[in-house]
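Why does residue order matter? Because the sequence determines the fold. Keep that principle in mind as you read this record.
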Amino acid sequence: MAYNREYTPDFITELGDNEIFVFGSNLAGAHGGGAARLAYNRFGAVWGQGVGMQGQSYGIPTMHGGVEAIRPYVDEFVAYAKAHPEYKFLVTQIGCGIAGFSAREMAPLFSDAIDVENIILPRKFVDVLQN
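Structure:
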């Protein structure tokens, strides 16, 4: 399990044509704060859509329960990214803002993503996964 590519930047203000902003959302798609608000304001997130591709963004719900409630949505995202190699997915530190989880809690959900070349992970997630 070697991660040998770039890390998601801490602050994303613009995207390349093939880049997708992956953010933590809520099931209602009320993108009012944090990365979700940025996704809504800049990257095409759709108000009322809490899951999946929307514009140049991809929502993963993080506000509806514990880590195990989030896992199926991360698994769905990883499968989607594998099926769409034409995109580069920039995963933010989902769940580590308003949702209140730590990188140590969230990173293991992305263990299957570490070998997927078009999924770019935050350094904090990679550090957890490789230690």
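The helical segments are 34-42, 67-83, 103-106, 123-129.
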